[in-house]
Design goal:
This protein is α/β, with parallel strands linked by helices. Strand 6, helix 7 and strand 7 form a beta-alpha-beta unit. It has ten helices and ten strands. It folds into two domains: about 40 residues, no CATH class; about 200 residues, Glycoside hydrolase/deacetylase (TIM Barrel, Alpha-Beta Barrel). The strands form three sheets. The protein has a five-stranded parallel beta sheet with strand order 7-6-5-2-10. Helices cover about 40% and strands about 10% of the residues.
């Protein structure tokens, strides 16, 4: 009798790619979450010490209760800390005795103003907002006044480039501008120093040594990807792993991304 096939996140991802369904499922996140969930049976939310950096994009009002459940599940495991405190952990200033979580959001979605910030303020949870500056003012996205209000509410901001184009697809000059111009505009509009960058897409084919060098050259202290392993004291702030989630996913699907 053949041995049973082990369901893993990698095998699910591979199969979805083969079927050409992955892009379609992104538009149907509840279905995507149900498909991912069986692989979560082989995982658990973290219990061991480590730094985990879950991140989201848009949070439509219909998904607000789901995001609240995610945050409650993380908080039962350990504290949710600011980006500054996460970097202090990496620097060795604080040795966690259990899992620690640091939350971030990417792009410039209007739901940050309407859904995310009110919820995080109520729950007293810090977060980093990585902004794609070229999206500001476009339909469905924040205005600069919105960004200033979010900053005034005590939340952190970083850059997510100007255009959200894949960095490795760009020539040297264009790629460098994604770092420098977004930083300059954010600092001008928000009147605060911008020191943190998250790569668009962020897998290991979307950035390389050149992009990390550009981040350093233009004055960033951290560079975040969408690679998923946990972080630990001594790890480089220029190689931060984050775990991409959708608020519509059930917790079993979350466990395929955030786990021991």
């Amino acid at each position: 009798m053949p041995s049973p096939t082990l369901i893993t996140p990698a095998s699910v991802k591979k199969r979805l790619n083969e079927l050409g369904l992955r892009s379609k499922l992104r538009a149907r996140p509840r279905v995507q979450g149900r498909i991912l969930a069986p692989a979560g049976a082989f995982r658990r939310l973290p219990r061991a010490a480590g730094l985990f950096l879950p991140f989201y994009h848009d949070v439509l009002p219909e998904y607000a209760p789901d995001l609240r459940r995610h945050l409650a599940a993380f908080r039962r495991r350990g504290p949710l800390v600011s980006w500054d405190d996460a970097l202090k952990i990496l620097a060795g200033d604080h040795e966690p005795d259990g899992p620690v979580f640091c939350l971030s959001f990417d792009d410039a979605h209007l739901s940050w103003r309407d859904v995310v910030v009110p919820m995080l303020s109520e729950l007293r949870i810090p977060a980093m907002f990585f902004v794609t500056t070229g999206l500001i003012g476009r339909p469905g996205n924040l205005s600069w006044d919105d960004c200033r209000a979010i900053a005034a509410a005590g939340f952190d901001f970083g850059s997510h480039s100007v255009t959200h184009r894949r960095l490795t697809d760009q020539g040297d000059d264009d790629a460098l501008r994604e770092f420098a111009d977004s930083k300059r505009e954010l600092e001008s509009e928000l009147q605060r120093e911008i020191r943190d960058f998250a790569a668009p897409y962020g897998s290991d084919v979307d950035f390389g040594e050149r992009e990390i060098a550009y981040a350093e050259e233009t004055g960033y202290r951290s560079f975040a990807s969408t690679l998923r392993p946990a972080m630990y004291p001594g790890d480089s702030p220029l190689a931060i792993n984050r775990q991409g989630l959708h608020p519509a996913w059930p917790l079993w699907a979350v466990r395929t991304r955030v786990h021991d």
